[in-house]
Amino acid sequence: MRNEWDKKFDNWRNENKEAAELSNRLASKELPKNWRTSLPEFSSDKEISTRKASGDVIQKLAALLPEMWGGSADLAESNNTTIEGAKSFLPSSSSSSSADPYGRVIHFGIREHAMGAIMNGIALHGGTKPFGGTFLVFSDYMRPSVRLAALMKLPVTYIWSHDSIGLGEDGPTHQPVEHAAALRAIPGLDVIRPADANEVAQCWGQIIENARPAGLLLSRQNLPVFDRSKCNSAAGATKGAYILREPISGEKPKAILIATGSEVALALDAQHALAAKQIPVRVVSMPCWEWFRSQSSAYQESVLPRNISARVSIEAGIAMGWAEFTGSSGKSISLEHFGASASAKELFAAFGFTVERVTAAVEEIL
Question: Which of 13, 15, 193, 346 could form a disulfide with 260 if both were Cys (CB 3.0 to 4.6 A apart)?
């Protein structure tokens, strides 16, 4: 029986050489040559939300990687998870015009835990890189399946958008506060909060290469795309943390601002304000604690040198865990209570995510 099967498989490979090459690549868990060149680059002349940037990256990667399957728990338009032009994974008997039993777009329904479990099953089959999206606040509903994915080291990617009070008027029921910290507590899960569109592209590339559980925490609101002629390359994001910009004066830094996601732009603004007060500070973007911890001690020291104890972390969530990077002398600009219903601009100002508060924190330490 085995000989007969092998003969049929050899015949299939000879008659379907392109498909056979793909089958071989997937079986060997390899990626196409030069696949990273498909990652888009974003111009700094236009603001874009990191959820929208992620959607743009998905289109580029999905065109090159047919093993990418995914969708959303009924929030595809908000999560930007739909592969454009792809059919829906539905039986041919479905009334949907996009139905195809070989489709790559999965409609998980309003059931986050089931979505996570389905993703795990797809990943366990092999030859696939499943992804699924919902709002970050709803990650609580899928925690058991996320934990199992981490336990089994599966190549699944969670797209958790609307990642902070920056989502605005939907109010405290939908505004994550404790969620980043709760997810970082899961061993083996990479929790990634990119600061701009180009960090999103680089982080997606690292997720594909690492082939292990990862969650992208993405903004609803538009964010600046940093001018990389004035800031270091977004490729640094793949190391988990990197020096985004050294002191404007060119002096050695007296303090370090460490931020994630939408708050990195605030750190850059505060850097200018501190420069005006003759206080040179370094700005570090830290999208992923887990990746940074995996770097060599020499690299970690180059980003966060021990001789600079004046450090301030900035993240619109609880401060739990940040002392690992700020040290005993540092401070955290954080959110230790639930949010409110108002515009993102009003909320960030009301809850102290301001240049004035950041500069005051640095001055207090110094």
Answer: 193
Task: List the beta bridge partners of residue 125.
Answer: none
Compute the C-alpha angle 263/266/272, nearest 5°. 150
Residue 58 pLDDT greater than 90, yes or no: yes
**Same fold: 31-217 with 234-365:** yes
Rounded CA separation 159/161 (Å) = 6
Reported in sequence order, the residue ranges of 56-119 that DSSP labels E, i.e. its strands, are 68-72, 88-89, 99-100, 105-107
**For position 96, what pLDDT does the model report?**
87
Give the DSSP per-residue string, 122-141.
HHHHSS-EEEEEEEGGGGGG
Domain regions of the chain by residue span: 31-217, 234-365
Size (the chain), residues? 366
Reply yes or no on domain 31-217 having CATH 1.10.1740.10: no
Residue 97: CB partners within 8 Å, gap ≥ 6? Answer: none
Instruction: Characterise 127 by phi-psi region: left (phi > 0), alpha (psi -120 to 50), beta (else).
Output: left
At residue 1 the predicted structure's pLDDT band, cuts being 50, 70 and 90, is: confident
Nearest-angstrom CA–CA distance, 221 and 166:
6
Cα angle value 295/301/307 (rounded, 5°): 160
Q: Which residues are catalytically annotated? A: 112
- Is residue 97 predicted with pLDDT exceeding 90? no
19: Cβ contacts below 8 Å, ≥ 6 apart: none
CATH T-level fold of 234-365: Rossmann fold (3.40.50)
Q: Which of 51-60, 65-74, 94-103, 310-319 has the lowest mean pLDDT?
A: 94-103
